[in-house]
Write a structure and sequence with these properties.
The complex is a heterodimer of chains A (400) and B (311). Chain A is built from 17 helices and no strands. With 400 residues, chain A is mostly helical. Chain A folds into 2 domains: 2-141, no CATH class; 157-399, Orthogonal Bundle (MetI-like fold), CATH 1.10.3720. Residues 1-29 of chain B have low confidence and may be disordered. Chain B has 16 helices and 2 strands. Classes of the chains: A mainly alpha (400), B mainly alpha (311). Chains A and B meet through helix 1, helix 3, helix 4, helix 5 and helix 7 of A and helix 1, helix 2, helix 3, helix 6 and helix 7 of B.
Amino acid sequence: MTAGTGNTVDVEGAAPGEPLPPEDETLNGGAGPSADPDAANPTKILVGLVGMVVVGWFVANASLSFAYYPEWFANSKILIGLVALAVGVGGAYFFFYFLNMLVEGLPGRLSRGLMPYAFLAPGYGLIALMLLYPAIQTINYSFANADATEYVGLDNYREVLGSDAFQSAILNNILWLIIVPAVTVLFGVIVAVLADKLSTTGEKASKSIIFLPMAISFVGASTIWLLVYQFDPANEDATGLLNAIWRGLGGDPQSWLQHSGVRLNSILMMVILIWLQVGFAMILLSSAIKGVPEDTLEAARIDGASELQIFFRVVIPQIKGTIITVFITVVILVLKVFDIVYVLTDGRDKTQVIANLFFAKLFRDSQSGQASAIVVILLIAVTPVLIYQVRHFRKEELGR
Amino acid sequence: MSDQTTAAADAMAAGSAGVDDTEPKRLRVRGIMADGRPRSLTAIITMTVLCVLWTVPTIGLLITSVRDRDSQAETGWWTALGTGGWTFDNYRGVFDRAEIGTALLNSVIVAIPATIIPIMFAAFAAYAFSFMDFRGKDILFITIVAVLVVPIQVAFQPLLNFFGPNGLGISGQFIAVWILHTGFGMPLAIYTLRNYMATLPKTVIESAKIDGATHFQTFWRLIVPMSVPVIAAFAILQYLWVWNDLLIAKLFLSTDNATVIVKLQGLLGAQGQGTELLPAGAFISMVLPMVVFFTLQRFFVRGLTSGAVKG
């Protein structure tokens, strides 16, 4: 950000219109500084257009050169990184600068009408290129064969929907969806409420501890919990904490992550995700709980309500919006859950989930058509969440 | 932990007068805290248990990482004080044998541009949504809200082709990952920044307009400085996401450019030789995000809770 703001000063220090390329000066003389602000300013239009093209060309080529000609940068990754940062931030700045100039140069009404779209265009362009175009292409692939050379109609869907692996994955995803968001929100609320009752120092310390896992990657967290779930045969000492406790209670050593009865292994992996996410839930819920007006609580107390009644009848209704937001966020996360399952079991022992099945189909089995069909099914599965999210957003907007 | 908490509370100097003196008596234990609120034993005990549950797995990893191969395999880490076997060889090994140094550098190179560049694009879009009126504004923003839910898996296959040898030929290089993270981070960036900017007073913009400032000037001189909290919050979120990402890094980076998370996943899959390096590797992969997270936690929490993520 600093680099960008630094640039601002430089560019705006030089008065607009001063550093013009020579070929534009004649044009400028021809049109003259227009007295009417609503009239078109061809100089600005031209400079803006040329500037945009030059910046775009430069950024695109610089970007490609990072990949094609690392020797230009002395084969140094660090140098490439630094140059890329400068090109990215500076490029974005100057692109917007010239875009802004171009639109300002248009006649008044047109300029005002186009400016918002000019501000939106680069961001939306990226979303279109990185998400919308690929999504359409994936839907297209889902009707094609394994190497996308021929259309096969609905064969992929038939194949995928009929396979045991997929049905097992769906069942697991539903389990994840039922358990993880609910438990995360529940723990989030408990922690938020109880931490609020601690001393200031206690609250800060305990919140930090519960928040900390948010910084840990899924792979890192899986490593941490792999140690907890470690299995050693009965003739050796337990090195996994869970087995140590289990043996202490008189049980036989268990290979927890292979234990598919009642989907125990899946549940143990859900524990990891919950452990990671409760901190996030707690932060949002805690701020919502602190935002509940004191006089509503006071009124309930005067009416003789118990603390539990106050919590369920006064606090919960007032933080409902936040609870839903947290819930949806975790639901979205759970639908895409991949890393934990991929590194711990890779879908063995009935732990398959959709995102991991997609990965396996695409890279292990080289079945790009079926992989695409799986993603399309995932896309359909998120649609209700999407609609709900949009509705929830609209409702919150009205309340703003 | 409980002792620590209470001691800390006792040590606290004069707090403000309490307002909660109507708390039910059953929660009262040993009088009241320094700030006048009643002490809750339920809260202290439950929170202590939760804090222990939340830290023990990580402590286990940390202790295991400084034990030698045999100790790791034969005894539990909680016996380490008695059984010994302490060593820093795993950390040395993870740098010498697993080349985690290069991977760390790669992670930094991936993360910094991928964190900063999306903000540039998103801030302009967020500005337009917050302070300009135009046709299709609602529907365009609803698109953002909708795209937030779309799983990034939909993009992989077409983009692998597009970036691959038959397309741009940049797959495997950092530039591919920077572009991907910029694109994938864009919806959340626009959404977060816009939600915050919408809370800024419109009058500021109006007066800037009267003073003859263009949108471009207003954006840089007023809105960006006022949006620093949310920019920081989003930057932390994006940084954590990029640093901790496995999928994109694994698919779009060559082995030379592999990030520390990809390296760690490789260590996890390794059988036999080298398994003792895993805890040390995992710990190294967590250090930087944890440091960033803790030093900037205040910004993060403020940004998250100030209407930024709340839909």
